[in-house]
Write a structure and sequence with these properties.
By secondary structure, the chain is α/β, with parallel strands linked by helices. It has a single domain, classed as Alkaline Phosphatase, subunit A (3-Layer(aba) Sandwich), CATH 3.40.720.10. About 35% of the residues lie in helices and about 15% in strands. It is built from 14 helices and nine strands. Strands 4-3-6-1-7-8-2-9 form an eight-stranded mixed beta sheet, sandwiched between helices. The N and C termini lie far apart (about 50 Å). Bound molecules: zinc ion (ZN). Zinc ion (ZN) binds next to helix 4.
């Protein structure tokens, strides 16, 4: 099974998919407390905002209708750097050392992203990542979270793309990333792919989650998601490829804008799962709730990859001592 993970930065699930979120009690409150250092001054705040008058994310709703929506709870700080580092590597802030968007003190070299873990499991695997935020894929700035693996880039086995067209802010960069990603997905069908779009986060910072612009931004990336799903759906339809499509976010936004601290509306994320080619694998169908660092292990297990471990609990690299016994003096072994 191939994997397409779409990361939509800063999307409030209670506004994008209000009925589904309201129907699942696991979406009501975080499943674990946040570090007191990152507490919001006014407390965790309300659990839900006012639902939009009309649905804003028809593609996400269609994916959920044929799949499922799993609650995910982020651990503050809810900046994008720590959020994506945790979501994409399957590690906590303490493990990966990413606490802010500056990535000071990060240990990402020891925390391979999910694409690199797919490659480690099968060195023939082809991987692709595209992002509107350079810190996820571009080695010229902070991070990046997704490993470069230049050896695999030489032959196109690993492809990275960072949106550069900011003539219309993240909206134009999102269009650029989607265009490139849809082409690669459709024509090359990488074994594992990650596509990140940032337009919703930009709108949240500009006008807040209670604004019409924020809802319009969700609709815009929802249409981008449709293009990406269409790209792999055509491969399923015409080639029979089995695809797991997943969508997630790194944090919400306060009504007035900003990631905030440990507010419920900010900490709430989701993992939207949809399979083209059959029912969801049983472990995914059985999920009730996840923390951010559990997303990558769940996705890797679904596509048959054993997650990387910082412990030596696998065969690779285990030193085996062979007791030396000296030469046999048997002439059959003398050459
Ligand atoms: Zn973010």
């Amino acid at each position: 099974m191939k994997l397409l993970l779409i990361g939509l930065d800063g999307v409030r699930a209670d506004l994008a998919l209000p009925e589904l979120v309201a129907a699942d009690p696991a979406f009501a409150a975080p499943d674990h407390p946040g570090d007191p250092r990152f507490s919001a001054p006014g407390g965790p705040g309300a659990a839900f905002g006012t639902p939009p008058a009309t649905p804003v994310a028809p593609t996400l709703a269609r994916l959920a209708a044929g799949g499922r929506l799993v609650p995910v709870w982020m651990t503050p700080p809810t900046d994008s750097g720590p959020g994506w580092a945790s979501l994409l590597t399957g590690t906590t802030h303490e493990q990966n050392g990413v606490w802010w968007n500056e990535f000071v003190g990060h240990r990402l070299a020891r925390c391979p992203d999910l694409l690199s873990q797919v490659f480690a499991a099968d060195p023939r695997a082809r991987t692709f990542a595209a992002s509107t935020w350079p810190a996820l894929v571009d080695a010229s700035g902070p991070g990046p979270v997704v490993h470069q693996r230049p050896d695999q880039q030489v032959g196109g086995q690993h492809q990275l793309f960072a949106g550069t067209d900011v003539s219309d802010g993240c909206r134009s960069a999102d269009r650029q990333v989607t265009t490139r990603a849809a082409w690669v997905l459709n024509h090359e069908g990488p074994d594992a792919a990650f596509v990140h779009l940032e337009g919703v986060d930009e709108a949240g910072h500009r006008a807040g989650a209670a604004s019409a612009g924020y809802l319009a931004a969700i609709s815009a990336v929802d249409e981008h998601v449709r293009h990406l799903v269409k790209a792999v759906a055509e491969r399923f339809e015409q080639l029979g490829e089995d695809w797991l499509v997943a969508v997630t976010t790194d944090h919400g936004h306060r009504a007035e804008g900003g990631h905030g601290e440990d507010e419920v509306l900010v900490r709430r994320s989701f993992l939207l799962l949809h399979r083209l080619g059959g029912p969801l694998p049983a472990p995914l169908a059985a999920l009730t709730s996840l923390r951010s660092e559990q997303v990558t292990p769940a996705l890797l297990a679904a596509v048959g990859v054993r997650p990387a471990s910082l412990e030596t609990d696998h065969e690779v690299g285990v030193v085996r001592d062979v007791a030396p016994v000296g030469p046999t003096r048997d002439l059959r072994y003398e050459w």
